[in-house]
Amino acid sequence: MSHNTINYAHRGASGTSPENTMAAFKRAVELGATGIETDVQMSRDGMLVLIHDESLKRTTGSEGMVGTTDYADLSQLDAGAWFGPEFAGERIPLLEELLELGKQHSLTINIELKNGIVRYPGMEEAVIAAVEAHGMEKQVILSSFNHYSMVHCKQLAPNIQTGLLYMEGLYRPWDYAISAAADALHPYYPAAMPEWIAEAKRQGVICNPFTVNDPDVMRQLIKAGAAGIITDYPDRLAALLAEEGA
């Protein structure tokens, strides 16, 4: 049934709140999200922090890089003021904080490992340990543009789902997913053709396209059988899913 489509809030409700903050994650729940997509990186001292860019500049105004800054310093940065004065004082959250929220609200958490540019040795092990410590193995899907990392995660924790992020129109992408032991394809939505979403599903590979903000595109993807849709506006998707389920 279409209303089982998971409504993933992209970096939280990032259309209306500062991305990857607890404010955005909590707002996503209020707006009807059933999943949250986020980005994880590591501080210099090995803490798992939720932030998209490798650089701190865009969302905190600070010079420097996530991976060369200790968590004590990262935790002092303002990750909300850039979006609007009412969000001043929002912090860069730890993965553990989002896992707590996910557990509380029975959310599916899509954790994107940002290890394509900066490698972050040991990040796969650390993320999996955090997921297991919260008993969230069944509520988490790991994803990355670094597909070697996803193969590594699957070897470490076969019971945690993995998804392969990509931009282009791959040929028979389900074959590729199966070769990497991945559970899911996470394509940029223009590459997600309805007929191959259906074919992937027949081959046992689910599809969670990103980042879909247009209700018409959402409708097409729901109809095509996307398992989840990643959006900046979970309220738009929640309204459509309610309509479809009616």
TrEMBL record:
A Gene Ontology molecular function term of the record: phosphoric diester hydrolase activity
Annotated ranges, domain GP-PDE: 5-241
Gene Ontology biological-process entries: lipid metabolic process
Record-linked PANTHER family: GLYCEROPHOSPHODIESTER PHOSPHODIESTERASE, CYTOPLASMIC, GLYCEROPHOSPHORYL DIESTER PHOSPHODIESTERASE
Protein name as it appears in the record: Glycerophosphodiester phosphodiesterase
Organism per entry: Paenibacillus sambharensis
